[in-house]
Amino acid sequence: MITLTINEKEITLDKPVTVLEAAKLAGIKIPTLCYHEALKPYGGCRLCVVEVERMPRLQTSCTLMSADGMVVKTESEAISKARRGILEFLLINHPLDCPYCDKAGECELQDMVNKYGASAGRYKEEKRKVPESHKDQILARNMERCIVCTRCVRMCGDVQGASAISIIGRGNRSRMEPFSSAAFNCEYCGNCLTVCPVGAILSRLYIHSFRPWQLDKEVETVCSYCGVGCSFVAQVRDDSIKRVIPRFDLGLNKGLLCSRGRFGYEYISSPERLKTPLVRKHGKLEESTWSEALSVVAERLGHIKKTHGGSSIAGIASPRCCNEDNYVFQKFMRTVCGSNNIDSISRTGFAAAQKYFEDLLGQGITANMIDGLKNSDAILILGGDPTAINPVLGLSIREASGRGAKILVLGNAKGLERFKTLHIMPEVFKEADTLESLLIGIYNARGTRGEKPAIDHGIKSLAGKTGARTAVPEFDELMMTLLESKSASIVFGPDLVQRTDGHRSLFAVSGLTYLLEARLYLLSEKPNEQGVVDTGCVPDMLPGGRPLNVYDFRRKFEEAWKGPVPAEDGLTLFEIIENAGAGKIKAMYIMGENPVFNLPGGPYIKNKLQSLDLLVVQDLFLTETAEIADVVLPALGWSERTGTYTNLERRVQLQRKTVETLHGMEDWRIISEVSGRMGCKMSYTEVRDIMEEMAGVSPLYRDITYQEIGKGNCLWPYHGEPLRGEMKTVPAAADIEREHREDFYLSVEKPLFHSGTLSGKSPALMKIYPGPVLRVGASAAKKAGLKEGDKVQFFTQTGSREAVVSIEESIRDNRVYYSNNFKGSGALGLMTFTIDEVTKAPGLEGCEVKIKKL
Description:
It is a single chain. The protein is built from 25 helices and 36 strands. The chain has 854 residues and is α/β, with parallel strands linked by helices. It folds into 5 domains: 2-75, Ubiquitin-like (UB roll) (Roll), CATH 3.10.20; 123-269, Alpha-Beta Plaits; 278-347 and 528-710, Rossmann fold; 350-522, 3-Layer(aba) Sandwich (Dimethylsulfoxide Reductase, domain 2), CATH 3.40.228; 744-853, Barwin-like endoglucanases. The protein has a 7-stranded mixed beta sheet, with helices on one face. The longest helix is centred in the middle third of the chain and has 19 residues, at 290-308. It is globular, with a radius of gyration of 29 Å.
């Protein structure tokens, strides 16, 4: 215990902290400019000086550690004089443009000068002149205002790990500049904006549009892009979001954001938003009323159910919709339509992988805190780049690297190039061989644990198989690093799920997780992929992960819902599409999804959906799928509704309504209206009613409330009951041998600056990344005679695209990457697929590409 006195107030500490932090704990404010809670102490500005008994000079409280018996003063005439002098020095070159500067009202320098002075300047020298930079379309730079606190540089280098900016010049000519000189060539996280204490770096999204005191309200909410679920504050004026800002005491992201979270909110006010329902008449979508559109949906669904039975109706839910929306949707499908044919786009990655992992290792195996990554001593990354898919999670991996963790990367991960300890590059599409070899090696060294018979047996069977495995360099080093690790983590991305033999990689990762007792993290591309699963939007599970074929579970839900639930498992996503039209599926209801664009084989998907007797789509925009629908219903988007998301940690978070809109309706309310017109009234008046029902009927959500969720600590297993019981047997691994000898293979790029197609409706993100490019590895490009900026046309079996070539040193095989984020030019539309018979996810490997220079 440490006891010290600050301003005659006795403070007791459990552990050593700086005097500045000790004062903060006691509610005593010491002024600072270079210090920031997210950064290491720097001691540069000297404003935090204090007097300490028996020390001859003033001390910087941000670097001075507390000691037992220390007596400190934070305010005195000598301290005020020192601070006043420092501020006077800073104002020698700082322009007096507060009425014009957008930082006015929240400028830390302005606040300090207002408190301590100086009231007038004594220096007559001409102020330095630095031309304001207008070359970057997102970040405005005014280096005349820079006070060289280096917060931005330390944030970019030490915390973000991008190291894209530095201090240049000497003496009073020092200033911050990006290495690219003109525009910022960086990750555009904007975290430099958060820490800049003055108006030296500003966002062009809100510059000259408002002042802090003009805001109507500030709303704490969560991001709508990926499965991390970062928290921030949305600042609103005139019913429009002016900006979003993080707070370091709010949410799991601890004040950090990525480019999508900080700059991608503008899609919600896009002029392209749907405003009225559309009904197809005489082969053409025409504007309609809500009453007519809802009645058409109810009448036609009722007719199809009566004619062909409930199993002829299918539904596709959305990981972009809230838990409440998805819960009501699956309830509607099961009790009103009489069908368990319900799934989501998450079947292509997250949902398929999580079901496999939980079947083998138990419910909640992926419910691990993101902060746990920072404390790992070895992290194995495979199946995608976490810094692009889940950027803030990726920062935890970078921080772990800084703490000495071994970062082991299998495959391509551009964002970890400077942080990886070991890079393993298997032969193209042969990752499963490498992972199985690794599992066998770990098993031979350690044996089985004997805790889970099913997986123990599966590992032994795999080890007993004969046949050569693909050898990769550094394999022994990889195995020894994992064996020597005392706290290992595995970060698994969607790319390895999307293989015809994806279940092989899933089993190998399950075995590694089990034998190494590692934490398993499942990357999530959408904000509520976990919630889609937990609320029952899968064909074989009820809400809370209860198996549909267990009578006692089903009966409980039937009693609560006052209606029968079909006993047979429904069809998975691709089974639904395969059976559309000529098969058993006659009607499809799609909530918040765009399968024509977001699934492989776009032309095939489109033909299947066009053959339906009825296609209903509710969404924010007229997507490629909505364009072929019979009825289109405009929904509300993020910030226009209240609800909950469940992130990849399985943390339930509250998304609060931020702005009002005259157009659209909440997804759950649309479903309720259709249900009522089909003779099954749902008695929800507000979204809170749905969560109360979920808490009452689902063992997983038992007794959970919005009040608890709003505090941000609603973590698995909540107050609920994880499903216990025997783990399922390991499905036999299919031996699928394919030769991959082509010059190039197409893969889907997952860019840092985009997520799905919603980000394409955000002007700021489109300025950063305005269109798709064809990314080619340096070695492969050299062999093909391709150079940076070459315009090419590339062909697959199903079509072609024109693109500009971008050479990437981080791509070390013969795959080329093209994104699926821009309307009319998606990669998935060029790809065919096969189905993994175990996971029911699509296999996208082996899509051959021919490239022709233009």
